Structure prediction request, 120 residues.
Amino acid sequence: MNILIVDDDINITDILGSHLSKHHNITIFNESIVAWDHYMDYHDYDVVLTDYYMPMLFADGFIKRMLSINPTQQIIVISSVISTERRNMLLQYMPLVQIIDKPFTLGEIDVGIKNISNYS
Prediction:
């Protein structure tokens, strides 16, 4: 699978990138705006893993923009704290959007990606 990882925490992207690159093609960004600029030009990803709270562009805005270009984009949002209001906003995009809470295990990420491959 082609996977885009977006998180402002370099430790998270390093861990996810190292784990997922064993079986997938990975692209990583630590800035949501830079990731968005890239996505506008290249949006052929099977899944986008994104943190919710990032400087400049929260995941809800990033998701709306991605889905305006690719309405079938599969997305996994990873975050430590998402308010009920924001969580409900994300859930309106199900089954395209999954939410995995931090701290997470790599097994949870694997299951999320497997769910996407089963859905596609």
In short: The beta strands are 2-6, 25-29, 47-51, 74-79, 97-101.
